Automatic annotation (TrEMBL):
Domain SecDF P1 head subdomain, chain residue ranges per copy: 303-430
Domain (SecD export protein N-terminal TM) ranges: 2-103
Record's bilayer topology term: Multi-pass membrane protein
Subcellular location: Cell membrane
Organism listed in the record: Idiomarina fontislapidosi
Protein translocase subunit SecDF P1 domain residues: 227-285
GO biological process: intracellular protein transmembrane transport; protein targeting; protein transport by the Sec complex
Name of protein: Protein translocase subunit SecD
Protein purpose: Part of the Sec protein translocase complex. Interacts with the SecYEG preprotein conducting channel. SecDF uses the proton motive force (PMF) to complete protein translocation after the ATP-dependent function of SecA.
Family statement: Belongs to the SecD/SecF family. SecD subfamily.
Length: 614
């Protein structure tokens, strides 16, 4: 028949709407005030911690909605903000300094919705409240670490080629290689020339020195790499510590913006982010006596570092590899049920570890934990200055030649848990310092939500009234499609893992409310034109939808292209606006063209009509 959908098409429309409604449903349940408990690297969260939390809450006459151990952290859901603050204070006193007690907001989504992956929309900092940090990277340290890695690579290569050298050192943005003889100089010059991409070679025959200088392009790439790696590692650390929906992005040449929605305590948020630390793996110097080093006679090429176990350790200065090559780490147990940390490296890290350990089987290897503390001062170029503190966290014997997978033994259960957490989250390629922090209170966030919601409601109500008054029964059809469109937008936003609703995003929804009826206005006006051209009502409906389709597609596709460009080149608020606009355009085309026609066909299709209420 002229205006009838086949059954499968009607069922498809119903299925899409019901699916979107199902995933939009969690947004009506709201959030519970919550306290989130995690541990630093010197403590762990387990069943005993859970019991201690319950005991503390009971002693304070606090009745939580629930207390659960989830992913190495305890989440306490409470009934009010007052109980939330009271619980935070009591737990802080009881648990001690090695536990992080942070305020949070936990979604109150029922379990049956969680089981199908339905979660509420993620709200941005301007809507949910939280903390905002602006962090600055120590680029000097980043360059030093990368050049130190290249220095070690050149050393190893020269030893393999049996080219003798007296010293390989880093100076500014270059590596100086001092050769022992004219013959060694000539061999090194021939070997190093053009071998390392991004480095220019300058040879000085008078001093038997080869200088490997970074090119300008390599310098720029290295700085970009330092920022991108720190962003990745910072995101991993925040995720490991359980902060939901963080926003972590680059700002300028050497700064990172970190936003933690729902975290209400700035001081605790700093602790959640953790110390700006890196990891290094080095060989223990077994050829020299550590007691001589403790008396001030540290041998050349070695370094005396404090150990977490108490006594200092004498280590080789050469770094086997740093923590940025670790892709995964987890706790396991050996055949004697002793804890160990199982580590997986990337390809480059595996090659470095294999090369370093093939001749050192049976020798001890140390894991060094390094922290950077800002002095608050800047150098002549305006870069922040840091003091470095290094500590040996574990020493293990190399049992065999290692590759991309190996294990760290000799650690206790608690140390294994904390060490694996740090390794899994990753080590920063360079230290960072918080140079700006802001707190957006949840009350301000709620005001933004209320204002945006009112704008959407008023815009929706006015459009609904206009459509009913101007297009009568067909206007009611358009209104149903418009309401369905809002549900579809919320459902899609809830389903997309990385989508976050911000205040500009709400503005995009308001704009979509007005744009969504444009397609229906075009269709209904074409139907009116067909009726004025003396076509029958059924023919007018059919030609009205068909002739308006190309115009609707052209108008919406051009707007969609603009939204995609905004998302691609924009940042922060612009992206939030672009994503809701793009989703709104796609869903409005579905509801206005497919959805309304399904209703029109069901109500008027196939019937003998003398006139239409349009």
């Amino acid at each position: 028949m002229l205006n009838k959908y086949p059954l499968w098409k009607n069922l498809l429309v119903i299925f899409v709407i019901l699916l979107a409604a199902l995933y939009a449903l969690p947004n009506i349940y709201g959030e519970d005030p919550a306290v989130q408990i995690s541990a630093d690297r010197q403590a762990t969260v387990d069943a005993s911690t859970l019991d201690l939390v319950r005991e503390t809450l009971k002693s304070e006459d606090i009745s939580p909605k629930s207390v659960a151990l989830e992913q190495e952290q305890v989440l306490v859901r409470l009934s009010s903000d007052k109980e939330q603050l009271q619980a935070r204070e009591a737990l802080n006193k009881r648990l001690g300094e090695h536990y992080i007690v942070a305020l949070n907001l936990a979604p109150a989504t029922p379990g049956w919705l969680k089981s199908i992956g339905a979660e509420p929309m993620k709200l941005g900092l301007d809507l949910r409240g939280g903390v905002h940090f602006l962090m600055e990277i120590d680029m000097n340290e980043a360059m030093r670490k990368i050049l130190d890695g290249m220095k070690d690579t050149i050393r190893s290569s020269l030893r393999e080629e049996r080219i003798r050298y007296t010293n390989v050192s880093v100076e500014d943005d270059a590596i100086n290689v001092e050769l022992r003889s004219d013959e060694d100089f000539q061999q090194a010059e021939a070997y190093l020339d053009g071998r390392y991409q991004g480095y220019q070679m300058f040879a000085d025959a008078e001093t038997n020195t080869v200088r490997m200088q970074m090119t300008e392009q390599k310098l720029a790439e290295t700085r970009d790499y330092a920022v991108s790696q720190n962003i990745t590692i910072m995101r991993n650390r925040v995720n490991e510590l359980g902060v939901a929906e963080p926003v972590i992005q680059r700002q300028g040449a050497n700064r990172i913006v970190v936003e933690l929605p729902g975290v209400q305590d700035t001081a605790r948020a700093k602790e959640i982010l953790g110390a700006t630390a890196t990891l290094e793996f080095r060989l223990v110097d077994t050829e020299n006596d550590v007691r001589d080093a403790m008396n001030g006679r540290v041998p050349f090429g070695s370094q005396l570092l404090p150990s977490r176990d108490g006594g200092p350790q004498l280590l080789k200065e050469d770094v086997i590899l740093t923590g940025d090559h670790i892709v995964n780490a987890g706790v396991g147990y050996d055949e004697y049920n002793r804890p160990q940390v199982n580590i997986e490296l990337d390809g480059v890290g595996g090659d470095k570890m294999s090369l370093a350990t093939k001749d050192n089987v049976g020798k001890p290897m140390a894991t060094v934990f390094m922290e950077y503390e800002s002095t608050g001062e800047r150098d002549a170029e305006g870069n922040l200055q840091f003091n470095k503190k290094a500590e040996v966290v574990s020493v293990a014997t190399i049992q065999s030649r290692l590759g991309s997978s190996f294990r760290i033994t000799g650690v206790g259960p608690q140390e294994a848990q904390n060490l694996s957490l740090l390794l899994r989250a990753g080590a920063l390629i360079a230290p960072i310092q918080i140079v700006e922090e802001r707190t957006v209170g949840p009350s301000l966030g709620q005001q933004n939500i209320d204002a945006g919601t009112q704008a959407i409601i008023w815009g929706l109500v006015l459009v609904l009234l206009f459509m009913v008054l101007y297009y009568r029964k067909f206007g009611i059809v358009a209104d149903i499609a418009l309401a369905t469109n809002i549900i579809l937008i919320i459902g899609v936003m809830s389903m997309i893992p990385g989508a976050t609703l911000t205040l500009p995003g709400m503005a995009g929804i308001v704009l979509t409310v007005g744009m969504a009826v444009d397609a229906n206005v075009l269709i209904f006006e074409r139907i009116r034109e067909e009726i004025r051209a003396k076509r029958s009502p059924q023919q007018a409906i059919h030609h009205g939808y068909d002739s308006a389709l190309s115009t609707i597609a052209d108008a919406n596709i051009t707007t969609l292209i603009a939204a995609i460009i905004l998302f691609a080149v924009g940042n922060g608020p612009v992206k939030g606006f672009a994503i809701t606009l793009a989703i709104g355009i796609i869903t409005s085309m579905f509801t206005a063209i497919v959805g309304t026609r399904a209703i029109v066909n069901s109500v008027w299709g196939g019937k003998r009509l003398s006139k239409l209420s349009i």
